[in-house]
Amino acid sequence: MKNIYDRPTPEKFALDAYKFDGYGKKISVFGTNHGLRNPADTMFTQIELEFDRISPQVVFVEAITSYLHPTSEENISMGADSGFLRYLAYKNGVEAYVWDLDLGEMYNLLRREFSREDLYLFFHCLKLRNLVSSLNSALDILISSKSRELSVMGIPLSQEEWNPEHFKSIFKRRFNLGYSTNLSQQDWAPVDNYFENGALAKLKSKLFQLRDQRLLKTIGDFAKNNDRIFIQTGAQHKEVMKQVLPLYMESFNEFKPKKQITQIESLEEDSLEHPYYRKIKVGNKELLLWSSSTPEISQNDQLSRDLLAFKPSIILIEDFPEHYAKKQENIKLAGEPGLIRYLGAKNDLPVYNWATQTSNSLYSLLPKYKREDVCSAVTFHYVLKYEQMFKNFTNYNDFWNVMSARLLCSNTMFTYYEASIGRFSENATGYGIISATKSHQVDMDFEKLRTALKSPNLISINNDLELLKANELLNSVTRSLEDNDRIFVHAPYKYIKSLENSIPSIVNYLKL
Fold first, then answer.
1. pLDDT given for residue 135 in this prediction
2. 212: closest CA among 484, 475, 2?
3. Tell me, what's the pLDDT at 375?
4. How would you label 338-357 residue by residue, b for 16+ Cβ within 10 Å and e otherwise?
5. 3-state SS record for 95-130
6. Whole-angstrom Cα distance, residue 468 to residue 462?
7. What is the predicted pLDDT for the residue at 500?
8. Which of 353, 363, 384, 437 is deepest in the core (most CB within 10 A)?
9. Strand pairing category for 228-234 and 58-61
């Protein structure tokens, strides 16, 4: 692809579709302007016309910026281009997925070539460079809020990097300019130049290439079983696809896929009284598997000692929990996953989320079960996963704001109502899970939540969801072993045991 990126960038990109038709596949890549939110704009008319023309079996969007809303106008206003296409997919019963890398993946891939300081500056400037008018927030609060946004999306921050003074000192040293929300667009010229021609230009170009590579891989993965695919992407990505997709599809047509790895078909319910950890050789590579159900973690804890002594190439955890500057803050709010993210940030170890594709698998549940029950089971499952976090919130609404964001990031199928605090409260009250004490304060009975997931209308859904996640861990570890020699894996015990039982299958698949 390199020669494509060496060519001059066009001054203006057309907002239209590149239409590939060959090898029995119809693929429409629609280049959009993410900033357009006027329902009367012709771009949205063209998207709908192209959607109707191709009648896709599957849809891909670049990002999720809003829940699904009842009307096309609301989805455009709240979710712009991707929101409108997801609405069309939802209305027509078509599955919709996100094709792009998440920020955590972007950071870890770029860290292989670029310094930590470059990445820290790059991602913070992406968040702050458009805030060029005077704002009401104090400067340090504003910078801290952007650091928190980046952290929630997977960017690791050490205790030093959480300090707004750290960002301001780097900003001043690199640009000879003090950061302020009163900076004019002209003041930002040195920053813009740094992105376009300076030290960060190569980083920006590499990020663009990584995202194009992910898009091509996604097309290839889904073209195996789908003949009509509709993709929404930025107009510049569309121009690249116009040049590389015909070549890719030609090689894809000749490619003979590997035999699929044997999937996990059942899980055993095993109790866990003590931390479980085991080193396993996989050919000439090594896994350290870790699981524990205890929320109590000492200052001199075994998890930290074992993880750091293992010196992993990468770390896999189930989700990116809330991430904070100090060790004990992370432990208090997120237990072991929070501690692992802290250790990764402090020691410059890449941490990946192995459960990123669970939302994609949820579509397989919908033909089998009622949508209302699927949404209830998924929501209960997520709340249970964040039990420790709930116990550290004093305000029910604040907790649900975090949960709602989690559901938004992980499920393309949820409507605004299905992810609302009102819907959860109504459902949870029906199962006796919650009871109000004072305004905005709620007691939640997590044992009753576990019981609800075993109720007649939810137990089969929850079992299928658990099985999907166990296979997602298996597939994530298998992919990671292709490029890494030492992998630390943290997961619930039942998933760890199923992974252990699948080691022979992994060795056979990878021919290790």
1. 52
2. 2
3. 86
4. bbbbbbbbbeebbbbbbbbb
5. EEEECCCCHHHHHHHHHCCCCHHHHHHHHHHHHHCC
6. 10
7. 92
8. 353
9. parallel
Residue-level pLDDT at 392: 75
Beta-carbon contacts of 271 under 8 Å, excluding residues fewer than 6 positions away, are none
Return the structure tokens found at 489: 């894996």
Q: Strand pairing partners for 233?
A: 31
Question: CB of 194 within 8 A of CB of 200?
Answer: yes
Is the overall model pTM greater than 0.90, yes or no?
Answer: no
pLDDT tens-digit series, residues 500-510:
999 998 988 88
SS3 content of the chain, % helix, strand, coil (to 5): 55, 15, 35
**Do the beta carbons of residue 72 and residue 108 sit within 8 Å?**
no
Name residue 286's beta-bridge partners.
281, 486
Q: Which pLDDT tens digit goes with each residue over 230-284?
A: 999 998 899 999 999 998 888 776 666 666 788 888 887 766 777 888 999 998 8
Query: What does the pLDDT read at residue 360?
Result: 60
What gap in Å lies between CA 486 and CA 475, rounded to an integer? 16
* Strand 285-291 with 276-282, pairing: antiparallel
Distances (CA, A) of 292 to 96, 289, 295, 437, 501: 35, 11, 8, 32, 19
> What pLDDT is attached to residue 46?
95
DSSP 363: G
357 vs 355: CA distance, rounded Å = 6
Q: pLDDT under 50 in the chain at which residues?
A: 8, 133-134
What is the full DSSP assignment across 431-480?
TT-EEEEETTEEEE-HHHHHHHTTSTTTHHHHHHHHHHHHHHHHHHHHHH
Cα-Cα-Cα-Cα torsion 78, 212, 472, 304, nearest 10 degrees, comes to -90
Phi and psi angles of residue 454, each rounded to the nearest 5 degrees, phi first: -105, 5
Give the DSSP letter of residue 258.
P
- The proportion of the chain whose per-residue pLDDT surpasses 70, expressed as a percent, equals 89
* The Cα angle at residue 357 between residues 259 and 321, in degrees rounded to 5: 135
Do the beta carbons of residue 200 and residue 122 sit within 8 Å?
A: yes
Q: DSSP character for 26? A: E
Full DSSP string of 6-21: TSPPPSS---SEEEEE
